[in-house]
Amino acid sequence: MGETLAALLAGLREEEALAEVRGALDDGRDPISLVEELREGMSEVGRRFEAGEYFLSELIMSAEIFKEAVALIEPRMRAGEGGSKGAIVIGTVKGDIHDIGKNIVSTLLRCEGFEVHDLGVDVPPDAFVRKLEETGARLLALSGLLTLAFDSMKETVEALEGAGLRRNVNVILGGGPVNEKVVEYAGADVFGADASQAVKLANLYLGA
Amino acid sequence: MDALERIETAVRLGKPDRVPVVPIIDFFAGRYGGITQHDMLFDIDKADMALEKTLSDLGPIDGQNLSYAGLGRIMQLIFPTPPVMPGVRGVPPDGQFQFVEKAVMEPEEYRLIEERGPIRWILDKMKLSTPELGNPAGLLKAFSGAGRDIIKAGRSIKRWRRRGVESMVAYNIVFTPMEYISLFMRSFNDFILDLFRRPDDVKAASRALMKPMQMQGSMMVRMSGLKRVFMGGTRTSASCLSPRQFEDLALPEWREMCDFWVRKGVTPLLHFDSDWTAFFPYLKELPRGKCILNLDGTSDIFAAKEVLGDHMCIMGDVPAALLKLGEPEEVDEYCRRLIMELGADGGFILSSGCTIPVDAKPENVKAMLASVHKYRP
Questions:
Q1: For chain B, which terminal residue's Cβ has fewer other Cβ atoms within 10 angstroms, N or C?
Q2: How does pLDDT run across B360-377, given as a tens digit for each residue?
C-alpha cells in the first residue's frame, strides 16, 4: 500500500495521484470517497500555504491535479451525487480585463466544493444581478486590478441594492490594490488578500 | 543639484540635497491635461502639453519613471500579444490601457525556439497578432511609423531634460525570458504548470531567448541615449513562485540580465510589481549600487530598506488606491514616512506604486509632489 491519494495530491505528484485515482476506480472504489480524499489533500495544501511552506504556484498546481482527477471520477458518479456547498457568482468587474487572480479563486472554490458561476471579465453590474437572481447564490465575489474597477464594484453593489438582493447576498472583493478602504468605498462586506483567504471567506459566509 | 544629479546620487546610494520624485504619471497627466488616453499614447506633442499643464498646476517632478506617452505604435510592435489600446480595434479613445492574458504558444514549442532561431520564432508569434508584419510592405510601414515616433520621443526627452525633468527609461523596456514567456507567450496559469511539468524545457527556452532580449534592450539604449533599462518583474515574484523555483529558474536569469547591463554601464530599473518581500535577500546577489528596486505598494518597502538599503536604491511606492481614495493628509503622511525613513541616509527615490492612476485625485498628486520639498531627511 503506497501513500494515500490525499498525500499524493498534497505532495503535487501529478502522475502518481492520477494513477492512484484510475486504479481505485478500476477496483470499484466509491467515487465520492475519492473526491473526499482529494479535498483532504487540498485542505493540506491550504494549510501548507498558510504556514508559508507552499506558495501560489503550488496552489495552482494542486488545483490542476484536483481538476484532472475529478474529470476522471465524474463519469462514474450518479447525477446529483457529491452535492455542492453553495452557489457563488464571481467575475472581474466592468472596464477591467485582468483575470489571473479571479481564475485562481474560481478554481479553488470549485475544488472546495462550491458551485461557481464565473462570468469572466469586464462584467457589467446587471449581468451580476441577473446571475444572482437566476442561481439564488448568496455570495458575490468581485475582482479588479485597476483603480477604475473600484467604481464598477461600487456600481455593482448599488445594482444589487436596486434589485433588492443586497440583504441576502454577501459581497467579497479581491485584486491587487483592493483594501479596507476600497471595501468601504464600494459598499462591499470584506476583501480577501489572497486566494486562500477567499476560500476561507466563502466557507465563512456560506456556513460550510 | 539638478534633477539628474539628484537621481544619480540616489541610485549610487548617496544622499542628494533632497529626495527626488519620479512617478509614472503619463496616464494621469493625459486625463488631467484634457486629452484622451489614445492621444496620450499616439501623439507625443499632445501628451507633452498635458504633462506640462499637470506639472504647472500640481507641482514639479525630477523625472518620469516609465512613460508610454507617444509610444503606442512601438508597443504594438514590441509586445507579441498586443495590449488593449485606447482608440484601437473598437476600444473607446479614453479607455484604459491593459495587457491581455492569452496563450500564443503550446508547451511543446519551448524546445523549438532554439531550433527555429529565437528571433525568427518571436517574429512568427508577432505575425499571429499583427498579420501585416508578414509582408515586406507591412513590415516597412510598421517600422517606419515606429521610427518616426522614436525620433519624436527623442526630441521630447531632450526638451524635458532642458526643463529639469529627466526621462528615466523612455522606451528602454526589457524582460527576462521567463517574465516574457509568462506575460506574452504562455499566459500565467499555463506558465506556472510548465514550471512543474517541464522545468528543463523552460530553462532551455530561457537560454535561447536571453540574447535576443539583451539585443533588443541594447538597441533601445543606443537609440534613446538613456543608460537605464526598465525591467518589469511580476510573474517571477514571491506572489507567484516558491523560493525553490525562484532560486532554480528565475534568479539565474535576473542575475545574468543585471550583470549584462551593469557591464555595459547601464542601470537596471527593476520595476517589481506584486509581492517580492520574501525574495529580497536574493536580490543581494545583484550588483551593489548599480540597480534600482522600484516597488508597487504590494511588497513591504520598509523591509526592502532594511534588507537591501545598503545594496540598491529603493524607489516607490505611493499606492494607487491611496491616490484615488485617500485624502491629501493621508498621502502627505505616507510620503513623509517614506522620505524620512527610507530617505534618511540616501538611496531613495519617491515614486508612485505602480502608476499614478488615471482617476487619482489631483489634490492627492499635488500632496505627493510637494512632499519632497516639505520633508528633508
A1: N
A2: 999 999 999 999 999 998
CA B326 → CA A156, A172, B25, B247, B301, distances in Å? 21, 21, 18, 38, 19
B238 lies within 8 A of chain A by CB:
yes
Residues 6+ apart with CB under 8 A from B186: B103, B105, B107, B194
Instruction: Indicate the average pLDDT of chain A.
Output: 93
Cα–Cα distances in angstroms (integers) from residue A115 to residues A37, A82, A193, B109, B116, in the given order:
19, 11, 22, 35, 45
Question: In total, how many domains does chain B have?
Answer: 1
Which distant-in-sequence residues (6+ apart) come within 8 Å of A77 by Cβ?
A: A31, A32
Walk across the sheet containing B313-319 and list its strands. Answer: B173-174, B228-233, B267-272, B292-295, B313-319, B348-353
Half-sphere exposure for A171 (CA within 13 Å, toward CB): 28
Q: Determine the Cα–Cα distance for residues B186 and B167; give it in Å rounded to an integer.
A: 32
Check pLDDT > 80 for residue B181. Answer: yes
Give contacts of B197 with chain A, Cβ < 8 Å: 14
Q: Which residues of B touch A150 (CB under 8 A)?
A: 321, 324-325
Chosen CATH of A5-76 out of 3.10.20.600, 1.20.1250.20, 1.10.1240.10, 3.40.640.10: 1.10.1240.10
Alpha carbon distance, N-terminus to C-terminus of chain B: 16
Question: What residues make up the domain containing B181?
Answer: 3-374
Q: Which CATH number characterizes residue B85's domain?
A: 3.20.20.210
The secondary structure element, H or E, covering residue A10 is: helix A5-10
Contacts of A104 in chain B (CB under 8 A): 189
**What are the CA-CA distances from residue B313 to residues B22, B114, B176, B275 (Å)?**
13, 36, 20, 18
Contact at CB, A96 and B84, closer than 8 angstroms: no
C-alpha grid cell, residue B111: 524546445
* CB contact (8 A) between residue A182 and residue B325: yes
pLDDT at A83 over 80: no
Average the pLDDT over each of A118-132, A171-185, B40-54, B75-89 and give the range with the smallest value. Answer: B75-89
d(CA B253, CA B374): 40
Is A193 near chain B, with CB under 8 Å?
A: no
Domain ranges for chain A: 5-76, 87-205
- Whether A53 shows a pLDDT value over 90: the answer reads yes
Q: Do B240 and A57 touch (CB under 8 A)?
A: yes
Query: Bridge-partner residues for A112, per DSSP?
Result: none
CATH number for the domain running over A87-205: 3.40.50.280
Q: Closest approach of chain A CAs to the CA of B297, in angstroms?
A: 8
- Say yes or no for a CB contact (<8 Å) between A14 and B197: yes
Residue pLDDT, tens place only, A143-169: 999 999 999 999 999 999 999 999 999
pLDDT exceeds cutoff 60 at B63: yes
Q: Which of B100, B184, B191, B242 to mutate to test the interface with A (most CBs of A within 10 A)?
A: B242
Q: Do A57 and B243 touch (CB under 8 A)?
A: no
